[in-house]
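Narrative of activities, Objective 1.

The group set out to show that a structural description can be obtained from nothing but a protein's sequence at a throughput compatible with the screening campaign. Below is one input-output pair from the validation batch, recorded exactly as produced.
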Amino acid sequence: MSVQGIDVADLTTSAALEEKKKLRKHFGRFDIFFFLICTIVGVDTIGQMASNGAQGFLWLIFMCVFFFIPYGLFTAELGSTFTEEGGPYVWTRMAWGRKVAGLNSVFYWFSNPVWIGATLALLAIQTVSDYFFNIPAGSLLSYSVGMIYIWFSVFSAVLSFGIGKWIPTIGAFSRIAMIGLFAITTVIYGIQNGLHFPSAGDWTPTWPAFIALVPLVFYNLVGFEMPSSAGDEMKNPQRDVPFTIMRAMITSILLYGLPVLAIVMVIPADEISGVSGFLDAIAKVFTVYGSAADVMLKVMAFTFIMALVSSASAWLMGADRTEAIAAIDGTGPMWLGKFSSRFGTPVNVNMASGIISTLVFVVAQKLGDGDASVSFGIMIGIVLLFTNLSYLVIFPTVIKLRKSHGHANRPYRIPGGMAGVWVVGIITTFWSAFASLTGIFPGLLSNGMLLDDSALPDGVTRGQYTSYVFTAIAITLVVGVIFYILGGTTRKDLVKDPEVPVE
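Output recorded for this entry:
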């Protein structure tokens, strides 16, 4: 179908053009780089990777080579070629049409407020309780700290990029300072006390570790396309996106690799406690500072919390903009995509994210232990898989758009011509599919079985888990369909998109 010879997928709406007049160009090379560091380097998962010992570091490096680098090439080409606001949504719309792009944007957006309310807010409370003052579980103080964390993150996303961008910048500096000081202190600790080196056998790749760790590492390494969600707010995306992607790629590998390797060398794997493993390792090596260790630990804990805040802020800024553009492009309710004339940000979808995060957080606090808590925890884990599922639609667009929009000026091209594009598209899509399948079917191809039930949460049968998975996916699809229907009026007024190159 076409309008005046232009494919409908390349058209935009009058509403989108009107709303985008409110955008301001605040996003420069410096800002994009630090924004990327915040979206990719999540301090909340460093301990989880390190808890697997040498295998955690081994598979991290493997995925950096065989996923992270191709992923960076993918984003460098699309982010510098198709620079419109709402990047991932616009790419999927141009490649597969509005229906697919609209449904996918709901998956892409929805997992972020859930992640903030169910994971990051609880981790922030735990850190405050462990290093500053005791917070009884389920107390008013616990609710207050969680609410402050959630709504400060939302407020920073509401602010104009000219102001709000400083939260991710501060968060990036916090990561670099925290991880740099930890690495230096680990060297001092090793000189004074010796290090715990895993045996040679611990470094031998194993299939169970591969199955367990690759989905986790995949989830940790995604986020390169986040700045492109604010494409129209960038000063020079054609120049800055490829430049910052390459530098952020190297920096992110170091910021993940160094602390994981340091933790593996300092603490035996059976003593590393998941999400708190990073702070546990910091506490252990900081004993070299003697009486100053307590004060320095509090500084590091505060820095850790700032890193958590900046992660939430950066992902909200990106994912919320993507859903806002989808809404004003006719695949969602128009009110959800409204941008503020004062701030130039999608305030309505920001508020919606805050409300979702708050509801998830309150339910998580209320349930405590018991069957309901187990069920809720499983559902949260499944919703977090939605990010992986959304990339199944996003990654193949690089192949489709090279073919359908080969006429577009590409400031950066994936090396190797069309063969290189196919390699990048297939590799990235494969890992997305693999991470999604192992999340939907835990224990897939593990321990010599097609499905190993020992990988399921305690007390949950395969049938129960599978019903949870497909219920969550079905509900989200229904929401996506309802959003698409509500966008029908907006879709009636399609016009030429000045930012899409026409052959």
